[in-house]
């Protein structure tokens, strides 16, 4: 998902009387108050009818920093925090979550740069974080000696900014000059500033870009490729840049030379540098025409050359540069030459990058790997001698080594722990150093060093056990969706307890953008939920990438109901199998998963005892008009261009499908004012409507934090404590 990884890895007038930030009681009305509520109900019904008809769009809630909108959010925050933080369990959850999040026993995951290991670290004393480095020898000791290069807490205090680390890009081969990306408060828009590694300071008069969405790539120490959304004339409707420029040191950014231009209707354009072990590098631009369809351009490294379009399929994902071979996967069937070989959807292929750059024509295509029906590619990474790959088989990870000879590509598997999720943490293309991580629901993360011959793994570091797993097991089951498709899901529970009686169960899913959910260890979920007697379920529904591009594409646009049917099938199976009851079943999801849980709330309120919708999309009639929303139309549909897609979106839009005569489970909506990807208005509107209707709803808007809804570890601990307190109040308290 190229555009997704580039993104991953888009002002209104007050609405008169409906703009009043009146907060109504959300508890169900008693008989004694029925007459009092009759008038409110009439007003609320009128509001709901106006929303459903489209005559009321609650535009005042789309003013991110609007006075009325913030007043409404603040009033809801006070009410929600009053109900949740006064519960004694909140503080217990907060303390236990923060202990995990700030623990110095966590694995310091690293990247390799110039033979050194680099890490960004946050803990109790460094809430903004430390950018630091160490040697390989020191890293594999019990107490590595870290050299702190930048103290982000000190910088935040000095500059009075809530800096959130967004990464660094350093120029090879000496890595002395870097572009650091810092976000104020956690938004996607971030500043980029040049850093001198020798002086350990920002370069006075150096490259500096104000807060914007975009990216940079080094050409040489005095020249950058930049793509910024600073100029509205060079910004797409999704809020990303569509122009790439060459910026020379010492010249104003306004005088940067045009290198490549896409179109305002694109999702965005991003430059990147691909470098081989011998120092040969290529400059590419990704022109994302939609979220999933991109055109790739080879850019010149000087002012005289012209961009060369690479004749690759539009649904393609570059994976790695291994020697001279560009490794890429395709998300659609592809026949490069008429009458020639056709490569299947999901295949991983390679070609000679030097030949492609020299001629602009496609060289010979080689097949690296073709996944089976229940397989998917989890990622590739190259060392100097080996191409490593994670291949997922029925949602369980495996590590493979690919090598190329005159006979083509061969592969062999490296033994990894059973029933775990495997990921490549870092791989150094200048040496044969690589680390991979393995984890499972009950198995803490362990970091392994790959041997130089890529034949075995050696444990390097491990995370402690954060919760008691006695009696707990992990099972993989399947539910039958409405169209007969088998939907796998993992259940983590105590079978003795589950077989004795149904219990509180939390169901989690995502279902979109070809994002796979694999087994993972969560110390906070284990402590706050499993240890308290809860059962946890993760559903691998369609829309994700668990079984390759076809699994994702089965639920695009007007076929999206399949995704919702998949989750409903899993929920029904949990009830039918006696794992839980509808009153004890909660569902949680974020972003696209927040839309998913919003749909569960409106389509099957009878199936759940509690719903959590985090940083969600909920107004599907206007999603494409807010922030980055236009970039997601290839996933959801084009409501202004396709009547069929508009009608379907209207049929599933949670905001437009609330029935005032229907009973709904308790709903907890969470968002962030600083989220400049999914607009906070989605959650605000749903909160305003459900509050007006007197439904059982809590709303919390973090004033910082961006799309993660948390700008630092303490805010993350607060969010987790709020969520699990809410779940216990609604799924556990009624058991006694």
- The CATH topology of the domain at 36-98 and 467-621 and 662-735: Rossmann fold
Architecture of the domain at 36-98 and 467-621 and 662-735, CATH level 2? 3-Layer(aba) Sandwich
Give the N-terminus to C-terminus distance in angstroms. Answer: 47 Å
Give helix % range: 10-25%
* Shape label: globular
Q: Approximately what portion of the residues adopt beta-strand conformation?
A: 25-35%
User: Going across the major beta sheet, what is the strand order?
Assistant: 30-31-33-32-34-35-36-37
Q: Count of DSSP E strands?
A: 37
| Integer average pLDDT | 91
Q: Kindly provide the radius of gyration, computed on alpha-carbon positions and rounded to a whole number of angstroms.
A: 26 Å
CATH class of the domain at 36-98 and 467-621 and 662-735: Alpha Beta
Structural class by secondary-structure content: alpha+beta
Uncertain stretches of 5 or more adjacent residues: 1-37
- The H-level CATH homologous superfamily of the domain at 36-98 and 467-621 and 662-735, spelled out, is Alpha/Beta hydrolase fold, catalytic domain
The total of helices stands at: 16
Q: Which sheet architecture does the biggest sheet show?
A: 8 strands, mixed
């Amino acid at each position: 998902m190229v555009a997704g990884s580039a993104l991953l890895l888009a002002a209104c007038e007050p609405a008169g009387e409906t703009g009043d930030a009146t907060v109504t009681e959300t508890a169900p009305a008693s008989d004694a108050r029925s007459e009092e509520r009759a008038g409110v109900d009439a007003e609320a019904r009128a509001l709901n009818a106006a929303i459903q008809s489209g005559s009321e769009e609650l535009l005042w809630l789309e003013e991110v920093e609007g006075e009325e909108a913030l007043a409404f959010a603040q009033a809801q925050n006070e009410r929600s925090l009053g109900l949740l933080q006064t519960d004694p369990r909140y503080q217990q959850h907060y303390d236990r979550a923060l202990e995990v999040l700030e623990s110095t026993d966590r694995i310091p995951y690293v990247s390799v740069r110039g033979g050194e290991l680099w890490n960004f670290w946050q803990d109790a004393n460094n809430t903004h974080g430390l950018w630091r480095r160490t040697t390989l020898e020191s890293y594999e000791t019990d107490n590595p000696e870290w050299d702190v290069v930048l103290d982000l807490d000190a910088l935040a205090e000095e500059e009075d900014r809530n800096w959130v680390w967004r990464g660094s890009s350093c120029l090879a081969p000496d890595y002395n000059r870097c572009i650091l990306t810092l976000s104020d408060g956690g938004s996607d828009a971030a500043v980029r500033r040049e850093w001198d590694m020798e002086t350990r300071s920002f370069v006075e008069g150096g490259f500096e870009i104000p807060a914007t969405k975009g990216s940079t790539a080094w050409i040489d120490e005095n020249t950058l490729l930049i793509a910024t959304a600073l100029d509205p004339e060079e910004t797409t409707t999704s809020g990303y840049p569509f122009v790439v420029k060459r910026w020379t040191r010492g010249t104003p950014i306004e005088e940067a030379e045009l290198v490549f231009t896409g179109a305002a209707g694109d999702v965005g354009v991003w430059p990147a540098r691909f470098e081989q072990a011998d120092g040969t590098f290529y400059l590419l631009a990704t022109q994302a025409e939609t979220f999933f369809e991109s055109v790739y351009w080879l850019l010149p490294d000087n002012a005289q050359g012209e961009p060369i379009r690479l004749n690759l399929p539009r649904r393609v994902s570059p994976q790695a540069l291994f020697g001279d071979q560009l490794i890429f996967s395709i998300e659609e069937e592809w026949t490069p030459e008429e009458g020639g070989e056709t490569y299947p959807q999901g295949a991983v292929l390679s070609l000679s990058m030097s030949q492609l750059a020299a001629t602009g024509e496609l060289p010979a295509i080689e097949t690296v790997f073709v996944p089976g029906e229940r397989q998917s590619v989890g990622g590739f990474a190259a060392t100097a001698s080996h191409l490593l790959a994670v291949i997922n088989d029925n949602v369980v990870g495996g590590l493979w080594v690919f090598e190329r000879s005159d006979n083509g590509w061969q592969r062999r598997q490296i033994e990894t722990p059973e029933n775990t999720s495997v990921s490549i943490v870092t791989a150094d293309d200048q040496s044969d150093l690589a680390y991979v991580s393995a984890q499972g629901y009950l198995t803490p993360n362990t970091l392994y060093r790959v041997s130089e011959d890529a034949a075995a793994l050696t444990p390097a570091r491990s995370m402690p056990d954060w919760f008691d797993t006695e009696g707990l097991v992990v099972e993989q089951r399947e539910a039958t969706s409405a169209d007969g498709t088998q939907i796998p899901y993992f259940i983590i529970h105590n079978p003795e307890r589950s077989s004795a009686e149904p219990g509180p169960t939390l169901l989690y899913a995502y279902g979109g953008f070809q994002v796979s959910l694999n087994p993972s260890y969560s110390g906070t979920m284990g402590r706050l939920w499993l240890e308290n007697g809860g059962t946890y379920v993760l559903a691998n529904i369609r829309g994700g990438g668990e079984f390759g591009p076809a699994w994702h594409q089965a639920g695009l646009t007007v076929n999206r109901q399949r995704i919702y049917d998949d989750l409903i099938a899993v929920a029904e199976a949990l009830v039918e199998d006696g794992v839980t009851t509808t009153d004890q079943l909660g569902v949680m999801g974020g972003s696209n998963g927040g839309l998913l849980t919003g749909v569960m709330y409106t389509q099957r309120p009878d199936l759940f005892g509690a719903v959590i919708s985090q940083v969600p999309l909920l107004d599907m009639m206007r999603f494409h008009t807010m922030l980055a929303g236009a970039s997601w139309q290839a996933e959801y549909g084009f409501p202004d261009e396709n009547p069929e897609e508009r009608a379907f979106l209207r049929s599933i839009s949670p905001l437009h499908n609330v029935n005032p005569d229907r009973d709904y489970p308790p709903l907890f909506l969470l968002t962030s004012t600083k989220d400049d990807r999914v607009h906070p208005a989605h959650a605000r509107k749903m909160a305003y409507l459900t509050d007006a209707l007197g439904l059982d709803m809590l709303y919390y808007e973090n004033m910082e934090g961006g799309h993660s809804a948390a700008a630092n570890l303490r805010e993350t601990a607060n969010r987790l404590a709020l969520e699990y307190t809410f779940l216990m109040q609604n799924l556990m308290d009624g058991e006694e």
